[in-house]
């Protein structure tokens, strides 16, 4: 039954690609988001400006356009660099930007901007007395971040984080357009080849719903974990 | 007009990519994108009002099917929805004999249907949240005046719910503008479609995509300021004094 004209196993592989893509992009987005939030809260005028420019530009342009810009433009820029290396130094080195890497970079880059906003709000919601207490104990800034600011911030960030993750998950579908064989691309190919679109597209839609439902459950657990000590939330 | 044309030709002289012809493609793309986004938003908005009222209803046989609809459309990628409608529309029995077929055969209408159903689902949930947040006192006051359910909805709940929904709806409009870029995947020549065409023809990714990104950015800011202005006018009473 799960054979689907022989496309079943490939579709499952595609689902694996989608999940890997989503998780790696999320990791990159969280790192970029933390950096952006720190830059926005820093006293440096320049850092603040750069972070604001980043979040404004990213949130004003469609994901697909950014993805194509990075994938097609990135390949061209890489070619220019490798060509120059060959001309100057005779280094024969060619890099082919693959769709997976381009996808992770673009999606991570896009959602880093959204995460930045989420984290900034959450960091500002942390009671300042806690940070002062950490300093009074002689903790280094990094230790204060790791033991106090980050865990306390997560409680406020989780709802936004979960929301961003749901949008990110759906955005991974766009990488099929630049040629990555995720489950959407395989389903679309199979639909065209067999003229049975529903057979392939509806299972893919159900897999997305399944991933979304599982993540909802995970985030609920996390929310409980990070709310320990805040009285029944 | 003559002057402008001359000035324009002067500006473009020596530019291999941004010729009047390619700018024409971008212009047509802008028109297609605007039509697609505007129409789907308007139809989606009209659909969302009754759906949101039904979704807030206490009767589960009304609210549950609507919840199922919004859950599915908000939980799956728009691209999948577009593919299902674009590739699947042929399979409705007898549709090829109806007057609708010449329209549905083109990519524009399947895209319009997909976008409309998608935005209607999101807007329904936005309105539902706004309806739920109506102050209890207002409803009690309306009941005390002897208003019927319909009258209360029309005079008390909806007007204030629309205002509360405004900021979230502004985000939805921008989201829709950005989501419309995937129309180019089903061969539609929208803004992104024009950029892909220019890229393929001149192999100039930076020019093609940066230019279109700038257009989207301008559109986004226009929507942003429009909603900010609307909020200032309609939500003035909620501002802290």
Automatic annotation (TrEMBL), chain A:
Every ABC transmembrane type-1 domain range:
15-219
Q: Which domain of life is it from?
A: Bacteria
According to its UniProt entry, one GO biological process term is: amino acid transport
| Topology relative to the membrane | Multi-pass membrane protein
UniProt keyword Membrane, yes or no: yes
The keyword Thylakoid is annotated on this UniProt entry = no
Pfam families referenced in this protein's UniProt entry, alphabetically = BPD_transp_1
Sorted alphabetically, the keyword list is: Amino-acid transport, Cell inner membrane, Cell membrane, Membrane, Transmembrane, Transmembrane helix, Transport
Q: Recorded GO terms, molecular function?
A: transmembrane transporter activity
Assign the protein's first listed, main location to one coarse class: membrane
**Localization per Swiss-Prot or TrEMBL:** Cell inner membrane; Cell membrane
Query: Quick one: a GO cellular component term?
Result: ATP-binding cassette (ABC) transporter complex
TM spans, by residue? 20-39, 51-73, 93-114, 157-180, 200-220
Q: Which family does it belong to?
A: Belongs to the binding-protein-dependent transport system permease family. HisMQ subfamily.
The name on file for this protein is Arginine/ornithine transport system permease protein
The species this protein belongs to is: Halomonas campaniensis
From TrEMBL, chain B:
* UniProt keyword annotations, A-Z: Amino-acid transport, Cell inner membrane, Cell membrane, Membrane, Transmembrane, Transmembrane helix, Transport
Q: How does it sit in the membrane?
A: Multi-pass membrane protein
Q: Which residues cross the membrane?
A: 36-54, 66-87, 107-127, 173-196, 208-227
Q: Does the keyword Kinase apply?
A: no
Q: Name one GO molecular function term.
A: transmembrane transporter activity
The protein's matches in Pfam families, at most eight in alphabetical order, are given as: BPD_transp_1
UniProt record, GO biological process: amino acid transport
| GO CC entries | ATP-binding cassette (ABC) transporter complex
Entry keyword annotation includes Manganese: no
Q: Where in the cell is it found?
A: Cell inner membrane; Cell membrane
| Boundaries of every ABC transmembrane type-1 domain copy | 30-227
Family, as annotated: Belongs to the binding-protein-dependent transport system permease family. HisMQ subfamily.
Q: Which PANTHER family match?
A: ARGININE ABC TRANSPORTER PERMEASE PROTEIN ARTM (PTHR30614:SF10), MEMBRANE COMPONENT OF AMINO ACID ABC TRANSPORTER (PTHR30614)
Q: What is this protein called?
A: Arginine ABC transporter permease protein ArtM
Originating species: Halomonas campaniensis
